[in-house]
Amino acid sequence: MKYLPKGNITIITLIITITILIIFISFFDLCRIFIAREETKNAADAVSLAISQNLIFFEKKEIKEIAYKVLSKYDCELIDCQIAYDEVVVIVGKKINLIILDKFNQKYSVVNSISRAKVIYPWDKSFNYCKYYKYNH
């Protein structure tokens, strides 16, 4: 029976310990990414709903101010906001500080989420509040 020298076991133990430590810290980075994604998703949903609610009342002048007011509660920034007659698309981002993944690539430090809200006006056909006439010419 052949025994390994004691020096080899300490090197193997050191390598395994460092590997487990890196995996453990990377797990915390991934948890931070998922938490930031939930926060940005909630912020994007809140902004798109607030803007679409104001579109129903034709208050287009204060849309950007409302978006920034809602985003101040979530600690996120507005990346893009596209407003159409019956749809609002909002992209929100948040910068996060990662421990391990930032050392390899800087693209992991920003998390973006997109939210789309459809605006349904009270005079829409789906409510049948207004009569629609078809004219034949």
Instruction: Report the uncertain regions.
Output: none
Query: What is the helix/strand order?
Result: HHEEHE
Task: Tell me how many strands there are.
Answer: 3
The structural class is alpha+beta
Discrete helix count: 3
Shape: elongated
* Average pLDDT rating: 81
> Terminal Cα separation, in Å?
102 Å
Radius of gyration, rounded? 26 Å
Largest sheet entry: 3 strands, antiparallel
The largest beta-sheet arranges its strands as 1-2-3
Helix content: 40-55%
* Count of the separate structural domains: 1
Strand content: 15-25%
Secondary-structure topology with pairs:
Layout: H1 6-56, H2 63-71, E1 77-83, E2 87-95, H3 101-104, E3 110-118
Antiparallel strand pairs: 1-2, 2-3
Model description:
- The protein is α+β, with helices and mostly antiparallel strands and 137 residues long.
- The chain has one domain.
- The protein has helices at residues 6-56, 63-71, 101-104; strands at 77-83, 87-95, 110-118.
- A 3-stranded antiparallel beta sheet has the order 1-2-3.
- Helix 1 runs antiparallel to helix 2 (63-71).
- It is elongated.
- The relative contact order is 0.15.
- The model has no long low-confidence stretch (mean pLDDT 81).
Descriptive tags:
137 residues; alpha+beta; three-stranded antiparallel sheet; elongated; 3 helices
